[in-house]
Amino acid sequence: MVPLKRRKVVSTSSATDTDIKATKYPDTVIFILERKMGASRRTFLTRLGRNKGFQVAEQFSEAVTHVVAENNSGDEVQAWLETQTVGRTTSNTVHLLSISWYTESMATGKPESIQEKHKLKVSHTPTPVTPVVSAKSYACQRRTPLKHHNLFLTEPLELLAENAELGENEGRSVAFRRAAAILKTLPRAVKRMEDLQGLPCLGEHSLRVIKEILEYGSSQEVESTRHSEQFQAMKALTGIFGVGVKTADRWFREGLRCPADVTKSEQRLNSSQQAGLLHHEDLSQRVSRAEADAIGQIVERAVQEVLPGAQITLIGGFRRGKETGHDVDFLITHPEEGKEEGLMPKVVQWLEAQDLLLYQKTTMNSYLESKEGPARPAHNMDRFERCFSIFKLERSVLGEAHSSAQATEGEPGGGEGRAPGSEPLPQRRPAGWKAVRVDLVVSPFSQFGFALLGWTGSKLFERELRRWAGREKNMSLSSHALYDNSKSPAVPVSQDICWVTLSLPERPSHVKKRASGTTRENA
Ligand code: CTP
Ligand code: MN
Ligand code: MN
Questions:
Q1: For residue range 243-301, what is the model confidence (pLDDT) as tens digits?
Q2: pLDDT by residue (tens digit) across 11-22?
Q3: Ligand 1 — pocket residues by CB below 6 A?
Q4: Residues 110, 25 contacting (CB under 8 angstroms)
Q5: Cα separation values, 225 from 158, 159, 165, 231, 386, Å
Q6: N or C: where does the chain have the smaller number of CB atoms within 10 Å of the terminal CB?
């Protein structure tokens, strides 16, 4: 039995405890350490325990009484425990136990009494430390500013996250993203490992990378990944609009390394990939806020032409205050429920008639509505009517300074838009327009609040919000609705958010306040 000198900072005791559903042994709350065990074995053991009526916590919290580890020494587990807790002495204790205690308890179906052989041996007694800073464990519970003090650590961690995504290792990628996100919340630059004491979300691998950067200025793993042929090629190939990880991987194995290789090769390309390659140069440039605003005006005009009274809202990164983005995202709705149906094809048709679209793929909505509200989310993908497109943005609409600085000589339709087979120009003349990726989403008014929340991002923020809802509140959140898992109909929501966000003039009198703005988290 080790006195638990450092307690994790938990906002409310109920917050992290609700994932503990079983009540058979209320005094025994087990936490299984994933370190050196692996996620799949931990999941298996967790499920096994829960099926037998044990309380096995997903997250470490104050409620945990038994920490179970495999292949870890007592000192390793103690060191891990110290990263989970901050300097506060309480009378609570936690048992650090070997997996043998857990398997024996599983066999008998009740928590076995702890014997000497079960205990992990800890050679040092923890000394209380003063917490440098504390933070809540879900990204959606914290402020994550766009500009922060730890870019020198978050950039390398996010590079490893990206590499894990390119290798389709989602778990690993999320772990690095969570680690980067927590560092963005810190009020100052990290100087020593001790500055991280007490912070959640920092796994062993991320801590190793951070330590190396603090000691040597860079991490060998990060730098070798950054310069590896595979990482660079996968990044370049997935950078083509319409190309996912699977296609990029196949091309990589066939020897292709960059968009030019794909153009030269005899690959069969679908229409989005063809458009992606054709406009690759423009699409690989960041989209500026001025460009986003100009696109916003076009979308507004299109929407008003085909459905007067419809409302558009800028979503995605620009709504979070980013200065540039890889695309521009808009949410469209109409205050009269049902009016929005079939809107997207009409908007697209109008844009095409004006020669403003270079590519578009519209998918119809597929949500199943019933009296009980939108269907429960089966997975993360939402089911709104949406359009992935490439806009043809005339540079002239961006105003004098911008257009004269970026393009003058090229006539509209010049540059990469020329017909195949025409003579290539000796050097690329800037076209009179720029290809810009635009995502449009249509939601019914009744779901607008959820759609706005779900499409503002960041991706990690959304993921954490859903995880928090599920694990801590026993609720299911999607871009359509919120469900209490213990009840049937969707949680009824006020429509105020819609009226306030859209500042509609005819909003009901009880809705007074203007939305406070667009400070969203940039986890
Ligand atoms: N989104 C989604 N389903 C998709 C794609 C996106 O729900 N298939 C939502 C996500 O919540 C995401 C948001 O739309 O956070 C915006 O996605 P995206 O444009 O990819 O990212 P941004 O955060 O806008 O970043 P960027 O500035 O690079 O565009
Ligand atoms: Mn975006
Ligand atoms: Mn997008």
A1: 999 999 999 999 999 999 999 998 999 999 999 999 999 999 999 999 999 999 999 99
A2: 333 334 444 454
A3: 316-317, 322, 325-327, 329, 382, 439, 454-455, 457-459, 462
A4: yes
A5: 12, 8, 13, 6, 36
A6: N
Cα(317) to ligand 1 centroid in Å equals 7
The answer to whether residue 152 scores a pLDDT higher than 80 is yes
In total, the chain counts a number of residues equal to 523
Residue nearest to atom 15 of ligand 1 (CA): 457
Higher pLDDT, 187 or 416: 187
Note the CATH architecture for domain 139-226. Answer: Orthogonal Bundle (1.10)
For the domain made up of 17-118, the CATH class stated in words is alpha beta
329 is annotated as an active-site residue: yes
From 455, 462, 463, 520, give the residue whose CB has the most ligand 1 atoms within 8 Å, as the site to mutate: 455
Span from the CA of 401 to the centroid of ligand 3 (angstroms):
27
CATH among 3.10.450.50, 3.10.290.10, 3.40.50.150, 1.10.150.20 for 229-278: 1.10.150.20
CA–CA dist 455, 337 (Å, integer): 20
Q: Across the chain, which distance is largest between two alpha carbons, in Å?
A: 83
Q: Ligand 1: which residue has its CA nearest to atom 12?
A: 457
Domain boundaries, the chain: 17-118, 139-226, 229-278, 287-499
**Test site for ligand 1: of 238, 315, 327, most ligand atoms within 8 A of the Cβ:** 327
- Asked about 382 being catalytic, the answer comes back as no
Q: Are 346 and 454 in contact (CB under 8 A)?
A: no
Q: Looking at residue 43, what is its pLDDT? A: 92
Task: Spot the catalytic one: 329, 382, 484, 496.
Answer: 329
Could you give the CA distance from residue 311 to residue 445 in angstroms, rounded to a whole number?
A: 10
Query: Could you confirm whether 249 is annotated as catalytic?
Result: no
Instruction: Look at ligand 1, atom 16, and give the residue with the nearest C-alpha.
Output: 316
Q: How far is the CA of 327 from the centre of ligand 1 (A)?
A: 9
Ligand 1 pocket test, candidate residues 459, 460, 465, 520, most atoms within 8 A of CB: 459
Exposure on the CB side of residue 414, measured as CA atoms within 13 A: 15
Question: Are 17-118 and 229-278 the same fold in CATH?
Answer: no
* Number of the ligand 1 atom closest to the C-alpha atom of 325: 27
Is the separation of the CB atoms in 439 and 431 below 8 Å?
no
Ligand 1 atom 9: residue of nearest CA: 455
Which residue among the candidates 17, 195, 249, 327 is catalytic per the annotation? 327
Contact 513, 500 (CB under 8 A): yes
Cβ < 5 A residues, ion ligand 2: 316-317, 325, 327, 329
CB atoms inside a 10 Å sphere around CB 41: 14
Which CATH entry fits the domain spanning 287-499: 3.30.460.10, 1.10.10.10, 3.40.50.2300, 1.10.220.10? 3.30.460.10
**Contact of 235 with 172, CB cutoff 8 Å:** no
Among candidate residues 518, 479, 463, the one with its CA nearest the CA of residue 177: 463
- % pLDDT > 90, the chain: 65
